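If you are new to this repository, start here. Below is one unmodified record pulled from the training split, so you can see the exact layout before writing a loader.
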Amino acid sequence: MGQGYIIDTNILIYALEGLFINNKNMTNIFNESFNISVISEIEFLGWKGFSEKSKKDAKDF
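And here is the target side for that same chain:
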């Protein structure tokens, strides 16, 4: 069984804002295997800082 990660709401927001583009470790985590809790998903999709485009990107993410 491989190693997995549970990602917090803030990390999801930072990733969507592009703050981890130059971070190889975080890029690998997002490309390989990660999970989010139902609570984090609700918080993430309910975040008030989204523009219309970023909200669509968040749903696709």
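Two things worth knowing about this chain: The radius of gyration is 12 Å. The chain has one domain: 9-60.
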